[in-house]
Amino acid sequence: MHSEGLLHLEHPWSRRNWLRAAGTLALGAGLTSQHQTARAASLEVGRPAPALALRTLDGQILSTEDLRGHVVILTFWATWCGPCHQELPILSDYAAKHAHQGLRVLGFSLDEPASLPEVRKMAEGWSFPVGLLGSAYAGGYGRIWRIPVNFTIDRNGMLADNGWDSREPAWTKERLERVITPLLS
User: Fold this and answer.
1) What are the residue ranges in the chain where pLDDT is below 70?
2) Which residues form the Thioredoxin domain (predicted)?
3) Is the distance from CB of 83 to CB of 170 less than 8 angstroms?
4) What is the pLDDT of residues 94-115, one digit of tens each?
5) Domains by residue range for the chain, with CATH
């Protein structure tokens, strides 16, 4: 996090502006499909999911490794992401209804620390914990270059849904029923 602060001082662009510019350049250069292919090669459904830990806004550390035996959704979002505003309340409702079946959601915000009040306000009332990602990199999930993006880990710690490969990056009620409900049975 300290190095991120130095980077922020050296470059006047915010992370949000940088992600938008990188996405625009990738689209303009036709790199999006190549980038998705690279992600698919490193993250394979049915293989062990990379471990990742969330430092929640209240300071707890929640690790995917500690959640073995649960179905875990990792969701990457930001306050400035329009589709996230639609997706996350749906995900929160679904998670609350299925928590007794072992569903856990970890929400990683790509917002900068200066946006913490907006993050708290947006996440207020959600049924799952959130925290700031801290950089654009999410361990074995790579650089988060588009949002929303979600990954699902089954009860055995295997990747069950790779968000980089999804044609539907945002959760809908129908997609949750199709992808997550069978994992909870």
Assistant:
1) 1-41
2) 43-185
3) yes
4) 999 999 999 999 999 999 999 9
5) 47-183 (3.40.30.10)
